[in-house]
Amino acid sequence: MIEQIKLYLDVCCLNRPFDDWTQPRIRLEAEAVLAIIDRCQAGEWLMVVSTALESEIAQTPESTKRQQVMDLLAVAKIDMRVTEEHIRRAKDLQSFGYKPFDALHIACAEAARVDAFLTTDDRLLRKATTQSERLRVRVANPVVWIMENNFAGEGENDDSSN
pLDDT tens track of the chain, all 162 residues? Predict the structure, then answer.
């Protein structure tokens, strides 16, 4: 049996579909996140969530947005409880300059052995790219990840016409 693709979306990703779509970048990222969630909901891919995500989302001041984002977590098939091991790894990552929640999310994604940790946070992406040898997970933007992983049957166009 082929292993399903496992993805961990951070809070920035999960919020993106509820952001202002008038900006082209936000629209693209929101559509990518929704496409990923659709594939997870269809059972083609697995979404991994953690109690760290739930804790961070709970801090969202706007109750409607907070509930919308929490509702997205229901798609997940793997729900991780943060353990002491995750906290130790997160403290390691914080020593490299990662923010506490970012470090904890990465630690959970590493422990779940996901195929990718997806974020729309440019600062986090830059740090993860320059420190990729310190991470045990690939960190990527959802738009870039989908484009790089040209999945069978999706968007197969002959680029010679461009």
Answer: 567 999 999 999 999 999 999 999 999 999 999 999 999 999 999 999 999 999 999 999 999 999 999 999 999 999 999 999 999 999 999 999 999 999 999 999 999 999 999 999 999 999 999 999 999 999 999 999 999 886 544 444 444 444
Domains of the chain: 5-153 (3.40.50.1010)
Phi, then psi, of 79 in degrees rounded to 5 = -120, 110
Ordered alpha helix ranges (H), the chain = 11-15, 24-41, 51-58, 63-72, 84-95, 100-112, 122-130, 142-148
Rounded to whole angstroms, how far apart are CA atoms 138 and 156?
A: 24
Q: What is the pTM of this model?
A: 0.91
